[in-house]
Amino acid sequence: MALAVATGAGLLTACTSAGPPAAPTPPAPSPSAQSPSGAKDTDPAGPLNVYAHIGVGMMNPKWAQDPLRIYVPNSLSDTVTEINPETHKIIRTFAVGGQPNHITPNWNGSVLWVNNTDGYSLTPINPKTGLPGRPVPVADPYNLYFTPDGKYALVMAELLARIDFRNPRTMALRYSMPVPCAGVNHMDFTANGHYAVASCEFSAKLLWINIRKRKVVKTITLGMPMGAPVPAPGPGYSMPQDVRLSANGKIFYVADMAANGIWLIDARRFKVIRFIHTGAGTHGFMVGRNGKYLYISNRFEGSISVLNMATNKLVHSWRIPGGGSPDMGGITPNGKVMWWSGRYNGVVYAMSTSNGRLLAEIPVGSGPHGLCVFPQPGRYSLGHTGNFR
Length: 389
What we know:
This protein is an all-beta fold. The chain is built from 1 helix and 31 strands. It has a single domain (about 50-375), classed as Methylamine Dehydrogenase, Chain H (7 Propeller). Strands 4, 5, 6, 7 and 8 form a 5-stranded antiparallel sheet that branches. A 4-stranded antiparallel sheet has the order 3-2-1-31, with no helix packed on it. It has a 4-stranded antiparallel sheet with strand order 9-10-11-12, with no helix packed on it.
């Protein structure tokens, strides 16, 4: 933990020229949409599975021919490292703006955006070539999301305490929504896209956002707030991080790096259901290819927990040999390998999704953060490091 403190401002955020992409074409609305939280994403006769379109072999034709690469933002080196996941070899490393925190596939997969938080810019990467383009000026881009209809890009302007609704093609500002909290950084959307839950790491709060009205309508306080990514001084502290909707659309899972586990939040009533302890420094999520398992990183203890989303029970806990600091990442299209950035170790980890075995540990730059695996199956990207539906 000394490293987390010693690296200063670069880790205070806990999670802390190519042409513009083509304008997105929103998907057709579901004829069985329910309010406020449940539009069906499967056959009307079958159960809801919001991840029904991210299975093996369900690659969107728009990006199916793009080469599979691991894109790593090195937040303390101000660089991006690209890795070939088949050979485990580094292809290239290039400079970007100050403190790149996440690499985000845009809604239609035509560009990957490097979120240069201190650089006040987004650097586009062409996923067909892996080459960067000219940065686009954007205020405080800590994290980046897209509304499910593709209408807006949502920049999580953490230090400015606002969420900026932007043109998803040009990133021109359309509307700024102030938020009643400090450290807004991660979010996910209800099944029909009408609402979203956002986490505020420095206020220990969750926000319930009406996307259509661009308004925060409710808040939840999970505990006592903290101001830096260090182990909590005792029980009762909260530092919410990643957010992900359950496959059945009924629950939002929220990682809590201070409480060392995940909160289950009712996706209809926006109320706490219960808390599940996973491990020290719970931070990031990945959803398995069949929508059954949620993979959870415990950054301070170097472990991965696996939750069965149907039963909401933990089924595995896997430690990285020799320790580590798994943070954010993604799963390969075949569903067999999960890639995590090692935030405090200057490496990335490739691990088996079936038994947690460490397959590779590859040195990269300093402070690797929001790692992106691209391409991945799905119809469209909701942002972050690759939340596809």
